Amino acid sequence: MELNLQSHNLVETDFKEIIYKLQPCLDKSGNPVEGLFNAWIYLNNPKQYNSYTTSAVKEIIFAFRQASNDRSVVAVVFTAVGDKSFCTGGNTKEYAEYYSGRPLEYKQYMRLFNDMITSILHCDKPVICRVNGMRIAGGQEIGMACDFTVATDLAIFGQAGPKHGSAPDGGSTDFLHLFVGIERAMQSCVLCEMWTAYQAKQFGLITDVIPVLKVDGDFIRNPMVVTDQWVDQSGEIIYGKKKRGESMKAGKDILTRGEIDLTPLDNAVNDLCTKLLYLMPDCTSKTLNSMRKKKLEHWDQNQQTNRDWLALNMMTEAKAGFRAFNEGPRENREVDFIKLRQMLAEGHAWDDELLDAILPG
Length: 361
Known about the structure:
The chain is an alpha/beta fold. It has two domains: about 20-210 and about 260-325, 2-enoyl-CoA Hydratase, Chain A, domain 1, CATH 3.90.226; about 215-260, no CATH class. About 45% of the residues lie in helices and about 20% in strands. The protein has 14 helices and 15 strands. The protein has helices at about 55-70, 90-100, 105-120, 140-145, 160-165, 170-180, 180-190, 195-205, 245-255, 265-275, 280-315, 315-325, 335-345, 350-360, and strands at about 20-25, 30-45, 75-80, 85, 125-130, 135, 150, 155-160, 195, 210, 215, 220, 230, 235-240, 260. The protein has a six-stranded mixed beta sheet, sandwiched between helices. The protein is globular, with a radius of gyration of 22 Å. The termini are far apart.
């Protein structure tokens, strides 16, 4: 007997700024399973490092709702196209050219952003963040809303808020300390220090790290993560032979010779999806929701007041910071911090004179 099943999607969405596709689940032998899928949601803005526009945020919300409602979906993979970036956060061009100086407009945008985070945290299916490159700023925040993270070892993780006129109040100030502890969260959120994928794994931020750099037919670990060691041209680590500068140069040489192949990353993600396939679906969903309470406890308490502050900040430091990043030369996309502090210490108002004085030339 054929059932006439109800659709619980709010609307049927034609995705234009993201990619949504179903990929067959694989059993333990690696064979496709009939009628069961994993939903892959791709950010698709590689020219701007997969930053999300307002339109993309709307589509992400609908995509997670659709994947959550799809009876045939086992797990959701949240990722992006290319091999340079998972996501660098909100689209700074849009921020600088439209939202800067418009707090009421940005407040409405932040409602959408908050709904995007909530749609991940409320998804009825387990969510895996497949990190194919940089996971920075808002990209870090949407990534931490996911349940698992599998990353290439070329990825970097971090925040950029206080450097570019914002605060990481889209999730990092709520979630990051739950992963790495308060001191390391301070280093990331306040000082904007970046972490390699191996550091992120060591700190407890992510689930797994996968080498994807292929040199002479073999996959090798990221040669740029070596600090007190030196890597020779074959990729072998030799201790105590060279200084750090020579080590970095050798690493760059290896990167230049190699090619990035994300097949091992996809295999690791599919392996995790297969593990999830062999679990009771309702028990899995209940366990996810119980674990997510720790994130939601902070998120639900702070999201609205953070939204209010972030909107007002578009009249001051965000207005300056996003314009500096969008308009400044490639080698300098930050405001003159010392000049800013000096003028504020003198009681100068946040006006066009101050803005012109601190923007990069």
